[in-house]
Amino acid sequence: MLKIDPEFRALIPPLSPEERSGLEADIVRDGRATVPLIVWRDPDSEPIECDVTECKYCAEGYGVMPQPEHPTFEMGDGIWVCERCEHGVAEVEWPVTLIDGHNRYEICQAHGLPYTTQLAPEWIETIDDAKIWILQTSLNRRNLDNLTRIGLARQLEPLLAAKAKETQEATRAANQSRRTEDGSRIAPALAPKKSGEQDRHARETVAQAAAAAGVSHATYTAGKAVLDHGVPALQEKVKAKQVSISAAADIATLPRPEQAKVVALSDKEILARAKEIRSQKTEVRRQERVDNLVKIANGNRPLDTVARRYPVVYADPPWRYEHAETESRAIENQYPTMALDEICALPLSTITTPDAILFMWVTSPKLEEGMRVVREWGFTYRTCAVWDKEKIGMGYYFRQAHELLLVATKGSMPTPPPAARPSSVLRAIRGEHSAKPEEMRTMIEHMYPELPRVELFCRTPKDGWGVWGNQS
To answer: Which member of 96, 329, 335, 353 has the greatest number of CB atoms within 10 A?
Structure first.
C-alpha cells in the first residue's frame, strides 16, 4: 500500500508549469513512468493484514485433517504461513510512503499508467532521516534558484542539528562510561555541554546548511532574512534574478509597506535604494562600536603613566640600528634608542582598549622587526601607508626616500567611514631627524575624530592626544 505523506510532499519545491508539462508528455509518450518511485518503509510500522481466506494446500487435501472453516495464518520470514500445514500462502506486505517521485505518481494516477517502486536507502530509519533525504535530493536539482535552495537548506538545518546532537551524545556517553573493579560498565550522567561548545556546533550546522545550498555563509544568512521578512513580490524578484539576495536582504529591513513601494521601482532604483540602506546600517553599527570604545576608554582607572586606555595608538618607536653610515648620522647622536626586545616588551595591553588600531612608523630595513613588534603588542597587521619624503637619503642598496606606516588592529576595531579614508601615499618634505609629518596626525584625527588617541614616543605633544614616552 503506497501512502502519500502531506508533510513529505510539502518539502518538495513544485515544478514550473513548463517542467510539469514536459514530464507529463514524456510519461504519456512512454506509456509508463520509466524512473522508479522511491518509497520508504517505517521500521516501526505494522504489516498490512493478511487478506488470504483459505490455504490452497489444505484445500487440496494436504495432511490428514480437513481444512478448518476459518484458517489462521502467522507471519514468518517475509511470508504468511498457514498454522495448520505450515505452508507459506502469501508474501507479507508493508505500508510504504512515497518520498521521491510525487509528480510522476500524480501523472500516472491521472492517466492510469503503471509505475515501479524502489526502496529508499537502508540508513533512512526515522521520519527525520526521510526528511533529510528528501531535502538533500531536492537540493540536487540544478534548475533551482538560490533563494529556493536556501529555503530548503533552512528546513534541513534543524534536522542536521538534531542528528549531530544525537551522535554527539552517543559518543560522549561511550567516552564517559567507566569500568568498576569487577569490569562491569557504569554510564555516569552526562555533563551538560558548555555554551562555547554549543555555539561551535550551531555554527557548524549553519555551515553545513549553507554548503548544502551551494552558497556562502553570508548569502545563506541574507537569504534567510529575505524569506523571513521580505514581501512576496521581493522574493519573486530574487527568484527571477532581477534583484540579488544581498540587496533584497537590505530592502527586507524596511517595513513591509515601504518594501512594496521599493519593489515597484526599476531594478536600477531598487539597487540604489539597497546600497543606501546598507550604507546607513554600516554607519549605525560603526557608531555603536565607536560609542562603546569611548565608554571603555573613559571608564578605566589610571594605568602606569597613562591615565586612560586608548583605542587609537600612534607610535614612532626609537629603533636601534646596528650601523651608521657616518658618525653625524648616527641615531644615538639624535635621541636615545631601544633594543628590539625592549620595544616588544612594552605593556601596550595596559594602555589600549580590547578593540584598537595601531599606526606605527617603520623604515624599510626595520620592516621585519616592525612586524614582530606588531605581533608582540597583540595586534594583527592590516595594511600600510607610504610617506614620500621628497628628498633622497642614504642607503646600502637603495637611497631611501620613503618611510612606512604600518596599520594593525586587534579585536573588532571599526574601520574609518569611506569619506574619511585618505590616500595611502603622503607627500611631505622630510624635516629634522626622525620627525614625522604633522599631516599624519591630522589624517588620523580625521579617520577617528570621536575616539581617544595616544602617541607613543611623542616629540611634540598635541591638543587632543595622550602621550607616552618622549624623544625630545
So the answer is: 353
